Amino acid sequence: MNSQSHETDRNSVPAHVAIIMDGNGRWAQARGLDRSEGHVEGVNTVRKITEEASELGIKYLTLYAFSTENWNRPQQEVDMLMHLIGIAIERETPDLIKNNVRLTMIGDVERMPAEALERLRGCISRTAHCTGLTLNLALSYSSRWEITDAVRHIAADVAAGRLKELDIDENIVSAYMATKDMPDPDLLIRTGGDMRVSNFLLWQIAYAELYFTQTHWPDFSKEDFRNAVAQFKGRERRFGLTGEQIKASQTPKKTV
Ligand code: IPE
Ligand code: IPE
Ligand code: MG
Question: Between the N and C ends of the chain, which has fewer C-beta atoms within 10 Å?
Fold first, then answer.
């Protein structure tokens, strides 16, 4: 790829990609393995896709790693996942720093076991100076939890006189969300074949492009990710306008 087309690509890459990493259990079960093997393999995919997102010049990658509803899985699987998250974070931190990746997280993380949470917080502070990709993990996250939490804080600020009821607009609501420092996702990918959003970023994906693939998360490759981004680039995002309006608003290319 020559440098010019690379530059063009960088200009149209999504700023924020969110992924529902689904299908670990079915990937393992199809191979006669324990579901936990699928989660272990899924961590390798996280590493690969994080590298590729950096490579493509994406600024934010939000990964749905554990939902509020996932707390209701068999205790053994929950324990295994929490243990795995802690181990993976500890192991990957040096590479995150090397690759200039900053870790952040969203979710009701106080529910997590102390050890995993401590490791996550350690990684967050050790990568706080990194200026490349922001890898944002959604942990113990659900959109309804987040929105409820935001409403509670808005109500408290109004009651305390810090916020006026009539000043509440969409920007203010966004500023109370856990994603307040990030742009809304441009592209939402779900692996594993199901076409649902499972309580993920409901406010933020209002105008995201959706991409569903049958591929289970452990099999999702860098090439699959590039294909999803390429498909995104080919879509016309109209935001309620007509196609003609969108074309007219695009700056004409220089012909000299
Ligand atoms: C996604 O894979 C990982 C988590 C939800 C933690 P699953 O564990 O949901 O895999 P399937 O959907 O059962 O195959
Ligand atoms: C969504 O996957 C949550 C994560 C990927 C962490 P689930 O497997 O929990 O979703 P449902 O239950 O099939 O909707
Ligand atoms: Mg699943």
Answer: C
Nearest CA to ligand 2 atom 3: 67
The pLDDT-based confidence of 255 (bands split at 50, 70, 90) is low
Amino acid at site 223? E
Q: How many domains does the chain divide into?
A: 1
User: Taking Cα atoms as reference points, which of 82, 76, 123, 85 lies closest to residue 104?
Assistant: 123
Question: In this structure, is residue 7 part of a structural domain?
Answer: no
Determine the structural domain holding residue 109 and report its residue range: 13-250
In a domain, residue 1? The reply is no
Q: Which residues surround ligand 3, an ion (CB under 5 A)?
A: 22
Question: What's at 187, amino acid-wise?
Answer: L
Cβ–ligand 1 contact at 66 (below 6 Å) = yes
Is the pLDDT at 11 greater than 90? The verdict is: no
Active-site option among 70, 99, 108, 199: 70
167 is catalytic: no
- 129 lies in a domain? yes
Q: Which atom of ligand 1 is nearest to the CA of 65?
A: 6
d(CA 80, CA 212): 27
Could you give the 3-state DSSP secondary structure of residue 105?
strand
Q: What is the pLDDT of residue 250?
A: 87
Q: Tens digits of per-residue pLDDT, 76-109?
A: 999 999 999 999 999 999 999 999 999 999 999 9
What is residue 218's DSSP assignment?
G
Q: What ligand 1 atom has the least distance to the C-alpha of 35? A: 8
Ligand 2 contacts CB of residue 194 (under 6 A)? yes
100 is catalytic: no
Which pTM was predicted? 0.94
User: Any idea what the CATH number is for the domain that residue 44 is in?
Assistant: 3.40.1180.10
Asked if residue 186 is part of any domain, the answer here is: yes
